[in-house]
Design the sequence.
């Protein structure tokens, strides 16, 4: 084969002379590539008429350009180059395919189907430069013909980005593709490419994209990224300004650039090829030094082959970046023979069965029908160049060196940030005492462990051990238990976590069934019972309680905790949460009760019931105890045992206390009755409740008719706030009663320190006093001591005549109980 190149001018006579001189005759093995400098429909149709009229049998393949190349030199904008390639043994077929419904993959596939045969060695193809997605076009072609080399590029329009054209002898399109097949099984085909754009700045992540349209980079609009890093002026001139500032992507076996082709009002950008969501990108700038060096290396490499013609498809960005110095890349190729081509809006490259769509690159296609290597051409090119070249080279080298140093600095900073971040995360997710993952880590792990089991482990009586032996032993126990559990899990597979206080958690790995889990828990419990903690020559035996639940979501941790607490209440080693059992029912019951309490508080349906307290000497009612009741909408009355504990856990108890105080004081003010109110230590310690009570007491004219019952508790003596409250109540004329005396602490010292007015003896001592000599002896001692220090006594839980007669004989001052009178909504007249 041979190729003759013609720079098309205004004088058609020149073409006639050229054809005669080079003996160009019309035949079906003549390929004419047209690199048209005038991107207009009229110019396309004019060149079609001229060439098809002169060469009706030849295959014509044309494209508008951003500049043409002839004899390895870039021609001035607007000029047209014709490349006449006469083949001897290669059959040619051309086709034009228009895009349909923007299905560019289908366009590539249809082109391949129309052209490729068993003997096709290469296809030269051009697409329009503004509508076609070049990458999808090549994907379609490669899907149908992966082994066929395709070369060429996307049409240009001298940088105006308005309209581009591709054409054959008789057809043209501004939205589609043309191609010519080279059918010859012996045709030698060589393809190379050079990129020569280097990345600068930090790596960025494409966070939202669809094919060649990028919406967000680093979670910011793509347009804003260009404005931020390249300046508002560059961003405002997009897409034209984006040609030279592409995004660089590292893909398998090739580094590619992607240039902006369109902007959108939403801040998204279209690129000449696809950019996949999740890809890492960086801005790129041309490296003049690399472009020059690789121009020579490409020529040297191709010179090793028996080449007869070379076609170049080079990105317009290279010409704009290099200017007149683009010859430094092209001229070394001149020695290879006829070299022609054009500056594109995107280049096609094929290697190793894979077609790539490129930007900022030069793609080379070398062809030969002869297998005889020509005499080696002498390649001499002055890489030193002139002073202007040296200046460009120096600036490029400076820019690239600074970029590399910044990249290295960014990498080191990123590594340090990652190290610090990992260190902070480790601290946030690690228990400092044991080094185990902590509760935060456990919670984050649950969603990845659906279907497995979580086991919560609690050391029995740990608080007592800590108080008795000291915190050092406590810490030693926590570490020892962690090591024991971890050692067991090494053999039985599971992940261990340290929870606050004395808790641990295990997420099992391979326990599938409930039966296997129960067997595992039994073995695990037996193993832990054998573990002994040695501390200062002391051997401390440790026992634990466990609660387990199947992991089905965030609530699984709550389920395991319910199982653990229930196991502790019924004193078993372990328990598996079972929704069918009482766990879920109790939760629902408690939630329902909490809602009922909340509604009752809002509707003032928490009311005092009044139980009479009889003076045993006179046989008359001397006072009333106010007892809380909750009235339901249906008229049902709920006693305190059913709702007070839940009210405390749901932090509704202070409201109940204030309601009871308010109503009791109103009743006392209207009747003058002596009333007795139960006050918890938590009520006294609650600033709002304490101040409320004392303020109301100060406003009463008859404070001496109010009695506050405080439970017998060591905390009363130890807390200055509680003792201060007691003193203030007595100063204001109120009285203090020690409630349920004898139920727990039962210390006479307590009686003297609290300086109470009344001792209410607990029902556990009173209820069997008529037949329990021990209980009678204790009560007699309490009564005797109380009378000696000037305190009155009250017997609670008087439920029969025998008990009443007994407490009278002992000398107790007053009594209350169901035998004497049940609590009523209104007190009877005294």
Sequence:
């Amino acid at each position: 084969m041979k190729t003759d190149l013609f720079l098309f001018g205004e004088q058609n006579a020149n073409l006639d002379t050229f054809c005669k001189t080079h003996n160009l005759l019309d035949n079906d093995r003549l390929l004419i590539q047209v690199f048209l400098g005038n991107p207009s429909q009229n110019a396309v149709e004019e060149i079609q008429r001229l060439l098809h009229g002169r060469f009706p049998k030849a295959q014509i393949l044309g494209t508008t350009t951003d500049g043409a190349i002839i004899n390895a030199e870039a021609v001035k904008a607007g000029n047209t180059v014709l490349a006449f390639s006469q083949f001897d043994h290669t059959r040619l077929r051309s086709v034009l395919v228009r895009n349909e419904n923007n299905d560019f993959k289908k366009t590539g596939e249809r082109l391949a189907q129309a052209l490729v045969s068993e003997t096709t060695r290469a296809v030269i193809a051009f697409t329009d430069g503004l509508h076609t997605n070049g990458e999808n076009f090549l994907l379609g072609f490669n899907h149908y013909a992966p082994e066929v080399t395709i070369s060429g590029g996307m049409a240009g329009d001298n940088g105006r980005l308005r309209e581009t054209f591709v054409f054959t002898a008789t057809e043209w399109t501004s939205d589609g593709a043309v191609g010519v097949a080279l059918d010859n099984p012996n045709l030698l085909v060589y393809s190379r490419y050079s990129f020569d754009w280097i990345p600068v700045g930090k790596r960025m992540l494409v966070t939202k994209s669809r094919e060649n349209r990028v919406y967000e980079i680093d979670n910011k609009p793509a347009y804003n990224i260009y404005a931020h890093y390249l300046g508002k002026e560059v961003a405002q001139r997009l897409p034209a300004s984006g040609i030279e500032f592409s995004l660089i992507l590292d893909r398998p076996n090739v580094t590619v650039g992607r240039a902006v082709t369109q902007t959108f009002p939403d801040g998204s950008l279209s690129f000449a090829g696809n950019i996949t969501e999740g890809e890492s990108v960086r801005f790129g700038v041309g490296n003049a030094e690399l472009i020059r060096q690789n121009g020579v290396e490409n020529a040297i490499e191709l010179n090793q082959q028996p080449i007869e013609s070379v076609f170049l498809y080079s990105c317009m960005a290279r010409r704009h970046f290099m200017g007149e110095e683009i010859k430094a890349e092209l001229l070394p190729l001149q020695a290879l023979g006829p070299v022609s081509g054009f500056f594109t809006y995107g280049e096609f490259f094929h290697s190793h069965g894979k077609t790539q769509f490129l930007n900022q690159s030069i793609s080379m296609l070398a062809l030969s029908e002869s297998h005889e290597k020509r005499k080696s051409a002498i390649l001499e090119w002055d890489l030193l160049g002139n002073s202007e070249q040296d200046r460009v080279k120096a600036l490029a080298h400076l820019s690239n060196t600074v970029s590399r140093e910044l990249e290295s600095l960014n990498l080191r900073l990123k590594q340090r940030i990652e190290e610090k971040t990992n260190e902070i995360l480790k601290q946030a997710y690690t228990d400092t005492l044991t080094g185990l993952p902590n509760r935060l880590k456990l919670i984050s792990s649950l969603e990845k462990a659906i279907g497995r089991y979580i086991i919560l482990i609690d050391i029995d009586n740990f608080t007592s051990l800590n108080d008795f032996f000291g915190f050092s032993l406590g810490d030693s126990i926590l570490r020892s238990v962690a090591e024991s559990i971890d050692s067991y899990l090494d053999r039985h597979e599971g992940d261990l976590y340290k929870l606050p206080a004395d808790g641990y958690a295990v997420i099992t790995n391979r326990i599938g069934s409930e039966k296997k889990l129960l067997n595992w828990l039994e073995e695990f419990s037996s193993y832990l019972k054998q573990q002994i903690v040695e501390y200062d020559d002391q051997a401390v035996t440790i026992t634990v309680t466990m609660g387990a639940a199947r992991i089905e979501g965030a609530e699984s941790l709550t389920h395991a905790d319910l199982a653990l607490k229930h196991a502790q209440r019924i004193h078993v080693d372990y328990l598996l949460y079972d929704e069918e059992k009482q766990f879920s029912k109790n939760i629902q019951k408690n939630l329902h009760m909490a809602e009922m309490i909340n509604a009752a508080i809002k509707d003032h349906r928490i009311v005092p019931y009044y139980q009479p307290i009889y003076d045993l000497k006179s046989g008359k009612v001397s006072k009333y105890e106010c007892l809380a009741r909750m009235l339901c909408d249906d008229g049902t009355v709920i006693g305190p045992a059913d709702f007070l504990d839940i009210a405390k856990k749901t932090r509704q108890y202070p409201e109940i206390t204030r309601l009871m105080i308010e109503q009791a004081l109103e009743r006392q003010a209207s009747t003058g009755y002596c009333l007795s109110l139960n006050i918890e230590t938590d009520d006294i310690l609650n600033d709002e409740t304490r101040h409320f009570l004392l303020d109301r007491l100060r406003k009463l004219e008859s404070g001496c008719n109010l009695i506050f019952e405080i439970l017998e508790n060591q905390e009363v003596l130890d807390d200055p706030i509680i003792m201060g409250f007691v003193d203030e109540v007595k100063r204001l004329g109120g009285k203090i009663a020690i409630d349920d005396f004898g139920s727990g602490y039962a210390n006479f010292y307590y009686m003297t320190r609290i300086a109470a007015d009344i001792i209410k003896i607990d029902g556990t001592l009173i209820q069997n006093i008529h037949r329990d000599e021990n209980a009678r002896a204790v009560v007699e001692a309490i009564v005797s001591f109380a009378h000696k220090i000037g305190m009155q006594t009250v017997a609670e839980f008087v439920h029969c005549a025998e008990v009443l007669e007994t407490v009278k004989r002992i000398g107790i001052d007053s009594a209350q109980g169901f035998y004497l009178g049940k609590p009523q909504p209104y007190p009877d007249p005294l």
DSSP finds 26 helices and 42 strands in the chain.
